[in-house]
């Protein structure tokens, strides 16, 4: 099982859109996929119309035995571990664990799922916390959307700093430009300056109405508009990230 974390310390960069659409693309490519919604806001869960069970919360998440909390989506080969509002306190729960377990709690939780799924994708909250360290250490690949603006690039530099702090290898980062508007000079200039760096993937996600309308349809873009540019770009992005992950 390959684990992918859709993560950035900055909000509003397209993390949840990425998690939802990449999960759908992976399932459409034939993989057995589990999307774990770790953001207390539960946007990914909202898009897939899935609610957590009444007995599920942040403490139960970290206790393990996740299979009983997983829910099927409306799409073949795609399941969801829904978010719970109590996830906002996950850092407090992690801090109470023994020191040697604190940063590896998620890694331990996901191991029993390895025979059930080919791909596990985490939709992550925009934090720089103990949970963030857990996410990085549990993931085979950290997929980070970057809007071609100054603050989004600052968030990318924070991610690189966090990778160094926990001793993770930077080659596990898959950055991609998100919400790109080619008519904007800043976007064109930023992309031209940074796209040659090894952590950036070639595929870019444009700023398009189809992605904005996900909140209305509560479905992945490709489920509503399979022939749209947005759907094709997310599929291409998934294939680029997946092929890189299996290529070492």
Automatic annotation (TrEMBL):
CDD domains: ParAB_family. Gene3D superfamilies: P-loop containing nucleotide triphosphate hydrolases. It comes from the Bacteria. Pfam families: AAA_31 (PF13614). Signal peptide: none annotated. Transmembrane segments: none annotated. Residues 1-169 form the AAA domain. This is Cellulose biosynthesis protein BcsQ.
